[in-house]
């Protein structure tokens, strides 16, 4: 079930810029709406909304986290990671890369958060990891 934009929306369009799949439509200064068929429940629209106009699938108001740099980020426990690369496939913003051990013949790459500014804190990588090697961690600033 998709996220929902309430009548608190003033049409600032911040949510449209953060949505990785273009699931939000609306004109500037007019109420926006979520296109349910496109929304995959990442929650970025709610975390960025300055007016608290976004409800989650259970119709709870999504708490705004004002600065994106404070959004939770994935931390990978390399000792647990089996390099299955499911997290790379699950990430809607392609913020992961593979890291290889330099100076070795290591052909197994391990995921690293290469582009933290692209991360929308959806947590899909954590949810999909089959060995619990990824944890979303709040950023301390």
Largest sheet: 2 strands, antiparallel
- CATH C-level category of the largest domain: Alpha Beta
**Average pLDDT across residues?**
92
Structural class: alpha+beta
- The run of helices and strands is EHEEHEEHEEHE
CATH topology of the largest domain: Alpha-Beta Plaits
The largest beta-sheet arranges its strands as 1-4
What oligomeric state best describes the polypeptide chains here?
single chain
Unreliable runs, pLDDT <50, ≥5 residues?
none
| Outline type | elongated
What do these coordinates show?
- With 141 residues, the protein is α+β, with helices and mostly antiparallel strands.
- The chain folds into 2 domains: 1-64, Alpha-Beta Plaits; 69-137, Alpha-Beta Plaits (2-Layer Sandwich).
- It is 14% helix and 17% strand.
- It contains 4 helices and 8 strands.
- It has helices at 14-18, 44-48, 86-90, 124-128, and strands spanning 4-5, 24-25, 33-34, 54-55, 73-76, 96-99, 110-113, 134-137.
- The strands form 4 sheets. A two-stranded antiparallel sheet has the order 1-4. Strands 2-3 form a two-stranded antiparallel sheet. A two-stranded antiparallel ribbon has the order 5-8.
- The longest helix is centred in the N-terminal third of the chain and has 5 residues, at 14-18.
- The chain is elongated, with a radius of gyration of 17 Å.
- The two termini are 33 Å apart.
- The mean pLDDT is 92.
